[in-house]
Amino acid sequence: MKNESKYPKLLKVLASVLEKLTDEEMDALLAGELKLVTEAKAKRKETKTKSVPAAIDESFLKSAAEQLSFCTSREDGQKILTAMKLKKADLLQIAESNMITARKGDSLKTIKDAIIEHFIGSRLRGDAFKTIDLRSEQEKL
């Protein structure tokens, strides 16, 4: 007997195969009408690795950020992003390079809104706070 140390492991494999048999198959196996046959597992096909999408040029990222910084309204920012016809991966790269929170699972609209809010919305809110006069009427006199 060779490789007796492998018997326990082989018996476990055999037991798992036998557990999958139906009662009729077990009866046929015991009667000699069926036999167990070993065969090699089919090898898994190697999956092709997805090519990494080409990164957006650094100068393009800077120009996009600059264009968005000069917008006077969120709608203008939407128009600029729409005109650029950017893919989701491109928008995610713009977000990542400007430390804007965006995830792969976010929709295009959500990512665009986050980018616009970062470049335009925050500036608009800041300007609004600067121009609001919170003094009471008596203090203004």
Question: What does this entry show, briefly?
Answer:
This protein has 141 residues and is mostly helical. The protein folds into two domains: 8-36, no CATH class; 58-131, no CATH class. It has helices spanning 7-19, 23-31, 58-69, 74-84, 88-97, 108-131, 137-140.
Describe the protein's architecture and organization.
The structure is a single chain. With 141 residues, this protein is mainly α. It has two domains: 29 residues, no CATH class; 74 residues, no CATH class. It contains seven helices and no strands. The longest helix is centred in the last third of the chain and has 24 residues.
Spell out the blueprint of helices and strands:
Layout: H1 7-19, H2 23-31, H3 58-69, H4 74-84, H5 88-97, H6 108-131, H7 137-140
